[in-house]
Amino acid sequence: MVGTFGMIAAIPGSPPGMSVFVDGMIESLSMKRESFSMAYMLGTITAGLAAPLAGSMIDRYGARIVACISFLGLGMVLIVTGFVDRIHQWGLPGLPDHWYAFILVCCCFAGIRLIGVGFAMTTCRSMVFKWFEGRRGMAATINGVVLSLGFSSAPVLLNGVVIHVGWQFTWITLGVVFILIMLPLAYGFYRDSPEACGVRVEQGGRDSFSRNRIPVYRQMTGREAIRTYTFWIFTAALALNALIGTGVSFHMVAIGEQSGLSRSEAVAIFLPVAAFHIATTLSFGLFAEKIRMKYGVILMISAQLLALYGIANVGHDYWRWLFIVGSGVGWGSFGILINVPWPRFFGRLYLGAVNGWVTGATVVTSALGPFLFGLSSGSLGSFFPAMVVCAVLCPVVIALAIFADNPQHKYASSSITAGGEYDGHS
């Protein structure tokens, strides 16, 4: 639970969390929406490119050390972000104000995303799923439900704080919370793996599914994992989900305004999404150890395709609920698929490095989402063209996912010959 709680480090820099800060920061810094989106994109891409390094550091130095450094660094960056408008007022000789604002926002977002997602989120995810084997799906379910509640309620809670005390003090408060609460929590409770504590990893029950599930015959390094077809199809699906989800949620207030919704009505959409998010996480998580993961990929992308149809007409009740259901199911599936497949496909030994590559890819595409939607709105006057582009990509990923099977299949033949029980589950 402490590892799951630590994953809230990603909320401040996530598009749902950021959505309540966007308009205030744009106004205070006198920036255009497309420039602000570009700054977010470049800062996030910087974080994504560094994420594989974070994964390697986790495997080398352990979750406790990396988490403590991450929470301290994140807190400091959040506090600086709260003062970014005052720093902008000081100016920089020889540099136009709009370029100075762009650089400041880009640096702040790079720090928040790099430390909050690239390091802290990856550390917590890797640590949690090194402790489970047989009940990994159940662990992912609990993890997903807690994160769903956190990420979906964050915009509403943060919006209330921003309205009452301003976006600047809200950033500062978040920074203090990470330094005074999360840092001591990580130091006191984070441990790298069961083996590091002298205990055996959890194995779960011995039902027919656990006996027939393909074992891990080869522990793959991060570089070996990225050479497999399955890794890239799963990562592409997660990345597309992130592209769509972040693009929509980052601009949710503006998308709602184009469809006739008020700011409060647009932000309130995140709450019912959470209900379907949680229901999907519970259902998918309970069966995650009994089904092939590629079917989850197909479910996730199909749901996001429906969400795109819904958000395009979000001003009407029917289409709004189509978005709510599609987005909730998509993100509920995402919470399982970003955690469960990797130790099953590649083993636990180098899980930090594998998660680092996955995080890097999803972080980069999550940066492209807000920029793509912001560019569509700024240049073409509507978010609809960006929605069409995303909708075209969905069937392509679904078709490719059909052939994305467990890479351990090719190492199973010798074990089956020796009397193994594997019958095809993955």
TrEMBL record:
Q: Which PANTHER family match?
A: BLL3089 PROTEIN, MONOCARBOXYLATE TRANSPORTER
Alphabetically, the GO molecular function entries are: transmembrane transporter activity
Recorded hits in InterPro entries, A to Z, give: MFS (IPR011701), MFS_dom (IPR020846), MFS_trans_sf (IPR036259), Proton-linked_MCT (IPR050327)
Q: Residue ranges of the Major facilitator superfamily (MFS) profile domain?
A: 1-409
Task: Please give the Pfam families that the UniProt record associates with this protein.
Answer: MFS_1 (PF07690)
Residue intervals passing through the bilayer: 38-58, 65-84, 99-121, 142-163, 169-190, 229-254, 266-288, 295-312, 318-337, 349-371, 383-404
List keywords of the entry alphabetically: Membrane, Transmembrane, Transmembrane helix
Does the keyword field hold Membrane?
yes
Q: Which organism is it from?
A: Coraliomargarita sinensis
Q: What is this protein called?
A: Major facilitator superfamily (MFS) profile domain-containing protein
